[in-house]
Design a protein that fits this description.
Blueprint: H1 2-8, E1 18-19, H2 22-34, H3 38-47, E2 52-53, H4 56-91, E3 97-100, H5 103-109, E4 121-125, H6 130-139, E5 143-144, H7 150-154, E6 159-164, E7 169-174, H8 187-191, E8 194-196, E9 202-204, H9 206-219, H10 225-237, H11 244-254, H12 257-270, H13 272-275, H14 279-290, H15 297-302, H16 316-323, H17 329-340, H18 344-351, H19 359-374
Parallel strand pairs: 1-2, 4-7
Antiparallel strand pairs: 3-4, 5-6, 6-7, 8-9
Helix pairs in contact: 3-4, 9-10, 11-14, 18-19
């Protein structure tokens, strides 16, 4: 049953017909709900109707899923309208912005805007524009989800969250993809790989899109099957587009080799035969071997993707372990140190206090706040 569920959510065409019985339907539905992949399963079953031996169980299953699919499609249309409105609002102020993840991922790597669900809207901006964006959104009815000085977050995280009370729209404004000190990737480097399409649309390059997905997977402690499925579909979509040897060097430069090795091993573990011949995976693994990177065996074992296990989001054990998935030892050590001792400039921004002599006192305030958050 596992194989059937996994086959339905992978990008490879079905080469032969197969049957789905009542037990299969129950298994597929349970796992689809668990991993938020029911909409993808619906679109896949619709796409491959000729390869599936039809029966009442499948017909009823698709009928049961149709309202959910239509609801998701309606939400996607509404989100797309908000995306366009927000992008236009920012561009009228000469602020560069593009949509990432969500509907953009659905259209770009799944070739179907309704095949993937998202609860929020992710918009990428330049970090140099972040304060202006905050002002624009605030003046247009959006509220941030915290009152902490935005400049403080530039040194700690990669985005700020805004919501619009009248419609409950949630927008995440990103100036990066992950914790700034974890990976060697600046806002400027990301924007250097924003491309202009023939249809007059701005989007991330294929290479930068995969880098974004890999960092997203690390941010979620390698536990979300949905993100891993995104990575698999992207590797398949760009199989003959990306120069994978050069991409391996880009991954190395960004500090994402361990993250990539963990993700690729999760993919090969779940989709053994179907991914065995994928050139993208083979070349990346070969290039990392040439660069003398060894597979992080202990991390791969600990982070093995078990589709039946329930993982609590952002639990501290996983968050600590995934620090060791950073490429450099110095980065790993610094990541722990920075948790309690951010850069002085970050502390000054947090407490809006530029006085150097007040730093020790403000550091103590910060440590107390962090410890209090951990023991909640």
């Amino acid at each position: 049953m596992h194989d059937l569920f996994l086959n339905l959510i992978q990008p490879f065409p079905f080469n032969s017909s197969f049957e789905i019985n009542e037990d299969d339907i129950s298994d597929i539905k349970a796992r689809g709900l668990k991993h938020n992949l029911l909409i993808l399963i619906y679109t896949q079953l619709q796409k491959y109707q000729q390869e599936i031996s039809q029966n009442d169980y499948i017909v009823n299953f698709l009928e049961d899923l149709k309202p959910l699919y239509l609801k998701s499609a309606t939400r996607s249309v509404k989100q797309e309208a908000v995306e366009k409105e927000t992008i236009l609002l920012l561009r009228e102020r000469d602020i560069s912005a593009i949509v990432i993840r969500g509907n953009e991922i659905a259209k770009e790597i799944y070739n179907d805007p309704n095949s993937r669900t998202s609860t929020d809207i992710d918009i990428l901006i330049k970090i140099s524009d972040a304060l202006r964006v905050d002002s624009v959104l605030s003046k247009n009815g959006y509220f941030r989800n915290d009152r902490i000085n935005l400049k403080f977050w530039f040194y700690r995280i990669h985005h700020a969250i805004y919501y619009y009370p009248e419609t409950n729209n949630i927008i995440e404004i990103h100036w990066n993809f992950g914790i700034p000190s974890f990976f060697k990737l600046t806002s400027e480097e990301i924007w250097n790989e924003v491309i202009y399409t023939n249809s007059g649309h701005f989007k991330l390059s294929p290479e930068m899109l995969i880098i974004m997905l890999l960092i997203h997977h690390h941010m979620h402690s390698f536990r979300e099957l949905k993100i891993l499925v995104d990575i698999l579909w992207a590797l398949y979509k760009y199989e003959n587009v990306i120069n994978w040897r050069l991409f391996a060097l880009k991954i190395k430069k960004s500090g994402l080799v361990k993250t990539t090795l963990i993700a690729l091993n999760q993919i090969r573990s779940l989709w053994k035969e179907t991914t065995a011949e994928m050139l993208s995976i083979q070349i990346l693994l070969n290039e990392f071997e040439k660069l003398r990177y060894k597979k992080p065996a202990l991390l791969i074992s600990f982070l093995k993707m078990d589709i039946d296990k329930h993982y609590s989001f952002q639990n501290y054990k996983d968050k600590i372990i995934t620090r060791f998935a950073l490429d450099n030892r110095s980065t790993i050590i610094f990541s722990f140190f920075k948790t309690l001792f951010p850069f002085p400039v970050a502390i000054k921004e947090l407490y809006r206090d530029e006085r150097n002599w007040a730093l020790p006192f403000n550091y103590m305030r910060f440590i107390k706040w962090r410890v209090k958050e951990w023991v909640k």
